Amino acid sequence: MRSSLDSLLILERKYHNILANVAKQEDLTIAEWQLLIKINTGLQTQEQLAHTTKLNISTLSRQLARLDAKKFITKMSTNGTRGRGYFTYSGTEKGKEAVNKMQSALKNLEQKLFMRWSDEETTLLQVLLNRLVQSMKRFD
């Protein structure tokens, strides 16, 4: 029997592959999808996004440029304080639709995955996973 951590690693790899394929169907990467969600929920400036995502500015700039080129976001120039300009970003309809499609696909995956599980089993799994997350936080 494999260890719990080995099982989690296998599960993570499979989930990552599924997530990458779902994102690819919408012409996104997983990182772009996660960034697009943050933009659609109201984070508008590069500074806000960098703080939230913990990405360095050059990586974030590249991801924003790709999202802009694919027409998932719009970039607007704004005058800031002390005469310094900056850009704000907002999701386009295409971007919002892509996020909604991905969320729907992942919800369908979850339903298929757990359709033969009882409510008690899914609740127990959630409790145990939450406990594991809390245990792992002690190593941060």
List keywords for this structure.
140 residues; mainly alpha; two-stranded antiparallel sheet; 10% strand
Structure characterization notes:
- The chain is mainly alpha-helical and 140 residues long.
- It is built from six helices and two strands.
- The chain has helices at residues 4-25, 30-40, 46-53, 57-69, 93-114, 119-137; strands at residues 73-79, 85-91.
- Strands 1-2 form a two-stranded antiparallel sheet.
- Helix 2 (30-40) packs across helix 4 (57-69) and helix 2 (30-40) packs across helix 5 (93-114).
Give a quick precis of the structure.
The chain is mainly α and 140 residues long.
SSE layout and pairings?
Layout: H1 4-25, H2 30-40, H3 46-53, H4 57-69, E1 73-79, E2 85-91, H5 93-114, H6 119-137
Helix pairs in contact: 2-4, 2-5
Topology, number of strands? 2
Reported for the largest beta sheet, the result is:
2 strands, antiparallel
Overall morphology: globular
Q: Give the termini distance in whole angstroms.
A: 29 Å
